[in-house]
Every structure is written in structure tokens, then in C-alpha cells.
Amino acid sequence: MFGAVKALVEAGGGSLANVVKITTYVTDVRYRLDFRVVRDEVFGPKGPASTMVQVASLSHPDYMIEVEALAVV
């Protein structure tokens, strides 16, 4: 899930440590605990600021989660 974020930040000369904010869109807020495990594996327990928003749907009917990341490089 965070592979694309990592690749884009590294392409700009940074690392995941440069990610300062994550906004996560989910179709069901019950995914938050599973997402938290993955986020903590990537960023550690003191990761970037984050917001989770439940939405009715995403750009494809099969999508359940979308992540937007802001990095300062």
C-alpha cells in the first residue's frame, strides 16, 4: 500500500521520514485497525499526523482504501 508513496518520495530525493501527513479514505471505518497495523509497520508508532475519512465509494468499486500522503523534502 505504501510502496507507491515510498517510490514517489524517494524520486523527489526524500524518504518515508519526510512524510508529514497522511489522509486515508476508507469505504468502511472498520478497516481502521487493520490499516493502523500496516501504517505502524511502515512508519513506526510515532508516524506522521493522520486523518481517516469514511466515504461512500472510491474511484473503482473494488477499492476499499485510498491513501494521500504529504511529504516535505
Explain how this protein is built.
It is a single chain. The chain has helices at residues 3-11, 32-43; strands at 19-26, 49-54, 65-71. It has 73 residues and is α+β, with helices and mostly antiparallel strands. It has one domain: 60s Ribosomal Protein L30, Chain: A, CATH 3.30.1330.40. A 3-stranded mixed sheet has the order 2-1-3, with no helix packed on it. Helix 2 links the parallel strand 1 (19-26) and strand 2. The protein starts with a helix and ends with a strand.
**Strand ordering within the main sheet:** 2-1-3
Series of H and E elements? HEHEE
Second CATH tier, the architecture: 2-Layer Sandwich
Mean pLDDT: 95
What is the CA-atom radius of gyration, in angstroms?
12 Å
Record keyword descriptors for this entry.
globular, three-stranded mixed β-sheet, single chain, alpha+beta, 60s Ribosomal Protein L30, Chain: A, 73 residues
How do the helices and strands line up, and which of them pair or pack?
Elements: H1 3-11, E1 19-26, H2 32-43, E2 49-54, E3 65-71
Parallel strand pairs: 1-2
Antiparallel strand pairs: 1-3
Short description:
By secondary structure, the chain is α+β, with helices and mostly antiparallel strands.
